[in-house]
């Protein structure tokens, strides 16, 4: 089974996940743009179990449709490493793809909140487009 480790910029906070991602996507919602400081967030969801090491600061955000997301970031360098959705029964975790530092990581299969995608952002062929959150 494949094991991957993602870490914050300073290496203090890490998450170790197992297996292939359940999903890989990009989100263009304004909250993700503000949270990442970029024009979208690239995320990969993984099934439990996963192991976190280091100290994390948390930020709880309520999404447009009422879902509650608990974001974890490094209190030292500020990197946003992973988040969970409180109402998801499978207890999966979404990890920021860039924190794996792996240019060969699988490409996104979904584009969420595409209605807010910057016009100059081009997506890979075959990506499923969702105008808003499909949940």
What does this structure look like?
There is one protein chain. It contains one helix and eleven strands, in the order βββαββββββββ. With 135 residues, it is mostly beta strands. The chain has a single domain, classed as Beta Complex (Metal Binding Protein, Guanine Nucleotide Exchange Factor, Chain A), CATH 2.170.150.70. The strands form two sheets. Strands 6-7-8-9-4-3-10-11 form an eight-stranded mixed beta sheet. Strands 1-2-5 form a three-stranded antiparallel beta sheet, with no helix packed on it. Strand 1 and strand 2 (14-18) form a beta hairpin. The longest helix is centred in the N-terminal third of the chain and has 7 residues, at 30-36. It is globular and about 35 Å long. The termini are far apart.
CATH level 1 name: Mainly Beta
Gap between N and C termini, in Å? 29 Å
What's the total number of strands?
11
Structural category is mainly beta
Annotated CATH architecture = Beta Complex
Main β-sheet, spatial strand arrangement: 6-7-8-9-4-3-10-11
CATH topology, what is it called?
Metal Binding Protein, Guanine Nucleotide Exchange Factor, Chain A
The H-and-E topology, N to C, reads as: EEEHEEEEEEEE
Measured as a percent range, the helix fraction is under 10%
Dominant shape: globular
Radius of gyration: 14 Å
Mean pLDDT: 94
Work out the count of structural domains. Answer: 1
Largest sheet: 8 strands, mixed
Q: Per DSSP, what share of the residues sits in E-state strands of 2 or more residues?
A: 35-45%
pLDDT under 50 segments (min length 5)?
none
Count helical runs. Answer: 1
